[in-house]
Amino acid sequence: MSQRTTVYISIMLVAAILGIMLAVQFRVVNRSPGGISANRAEELLTDLKQINREQENLKKEIADLNYKLNQVNKGKSEAIEALRGELNKVRMSAGLVTVTGPGVEVVLDNPKNETEPGMPPGLFIIRDEDLLKVVNELWGAGAEAISINGQRIIATSEIRLAAPFININTRRVVPPYQVLAVGNPDTLVSSLELPGGLVEYLRSLGIDITVEKHDDLTIPAYAER
């Protein structure tokens, strides 16, 4: 065999081998995934929709929890305000705070001539029971706070005759007696000045009494001795 023939045979063998390699490579490329299959894409789309639904449910749950938390905080604030209001009422009833507001001023004084011909001395002098009647009438008419000559009247206050004086909260007070009451002025005055009411009764005893409305009164806190 000549050298030329040997060369041709070698070339043909190389070409054949190259052809076989190319064919195998073509099959491998065709078999390798060039993208996502339709079934796999559908599965991923389904998963994505499920994730979106779960995300929306979580958002709704978060919003619901935030609403409930706000309601709890709101209820807590309202409860605190209610307790604070009750505390203020108790403090006011106990006379622990100064009270300012509209109300009435009632001034009682002994008559200029304490005796009349044929009447025993001291008949027309203001007594502790007279002041008690005024105070009770004012409480009954809705007074929020009351004082007499600067002495705050509370549940335990004592108004007691210690002739010729009256002791209020163990302190001696003398006429004229200035009774201040914070509350609705019209209601308080109407209660005192009813026909046949307390003011008319006290005047019938000869006591000098005046009732005046005020837009702004200040009643001091109770002071322990």
UniProtKB/TrEMBL annotation:
Membrane-spanning residues: 6-24
Entries under InterPro entries matching the protein: DUF881
Residue ranges of coiled coil: 38-75
Entry-linked Pfam families: DUF881
PANTHER family: UPF0749 PROTEIN RV1825 (PTHR37313), UPF0749 PROTEIN YLXX (PTHR37313:SF2)
This protein's UniProt keywords: Coiled coil, Membrane, Transmembrane, Transmembrane helix
Family: Belongs to the UPF0749 family.
UniProt name for this protein: Uncharacterized conserved protein YlxW, UPF0749 family
Source organism: Desulfoscipio geothermicus DSM 3669
